[in-house]
Amino acid sequence: MAQTSFDIDEKTASALNSLKETYGVSSNAAVLRRALAIALAASQYADDDHNIHLLNATDEGIKREVILPQRY
Hints:
Elements: H1 10-23, H2 28-43, E1 52-58, E2 61-68
Antiparallel strand pairs: 1-2
């Protein structure tokens, strides 16, 4: 398996650690694999401007919409 190394800032390190808990994994590599899988799935539903819309749907309708622009 190929190995890649890169430097990350404190904010990114904190995000990776938080996602380890959220995803129930123990390595940064596992977090990145999961995040890439989610990004790939979400990208299939991007709009014409390549924005991704996340919806929090409830029985009463959409509670909140978050738009991730192409240039985040």
